[in-house]
Design a protein that fits this description.
Elements (H helix, E strand, L loop, with lengths): L3 H14 L5 H17 L10 H4 L3 H9 L6 H12 L13
């Protein structure tokens, strides 16, 4: 419960700003945000992920049963789509 505000802030930032980026870039930026929150005195989890903050294990299991890949990037993208108020922009890094 102590990390609730910080984790919610990071989840909102990921949904608002990171959909078009690769998993590596998302991870780097999120780690920077966690460090900045710590410097400003806002507590947040060191391993904050969308699935830990916004994910429902039953819903995620249902998505995977219906064909969603099991990697965290795909799960995060699904959570962004479900939780975004507008259509998020995604760029598939696997398409060349």
């Amino acid at each position: 419960l102590a990390y609730c505000a910080g984790d919610a802030l990071l989840a909102a930032a990921v949904i608002a700003y990171l959909p078009p980026y690769t998993q590596a870039y998302r991870s780097r930026l999120t780690a920077n945000w966690v460090r900045m929150c710590s410097q400003l005195g806002m507590q947040c989890s060191n391993d904050t992920s969308l699935s830990s903050v916004l994910g429902d294990p039953v819903q995620i299991g249902d998505w995977r049963a219906k064909g969603l890949p099991t990697d965290s990037f795909s799960t995060d993208n699904a959570l962004i789509v479900v939780n975004a108020r507008r259509w998020p922009l995604f760029i598939d890094p696997q398409v060349r």
